[in-house]
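Quick one, tokens below:
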């Protein structure tokens, strides 16, 4: 990016809705496991179920940047 583009006052930050993709419905245990970088094993799925029960949707949000 050029210096003049970086100083352009008309530049607006990109809205969050454009930056982040989320599932349309509630996250599944599989979503949480995959977002954490773990393998889909019975143990990891149970861990994800517990996280979802404890944290709700934020269980997935906490795994993503």
């Amino acid at each position: 990016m050029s210096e003049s583009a970086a100083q352009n006052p008309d530049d607006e930050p990109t809205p969050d809705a454009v930056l982040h993709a989320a599932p349309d419905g509630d996250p599944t245990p599989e979503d949480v496991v995959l977002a954490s970088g773990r393998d889909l094993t019975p143990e990891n799925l149970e861990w994800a179920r517990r996280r979802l029960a404890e944290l709700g949707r934020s269980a997935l949000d906490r795994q993503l940047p």
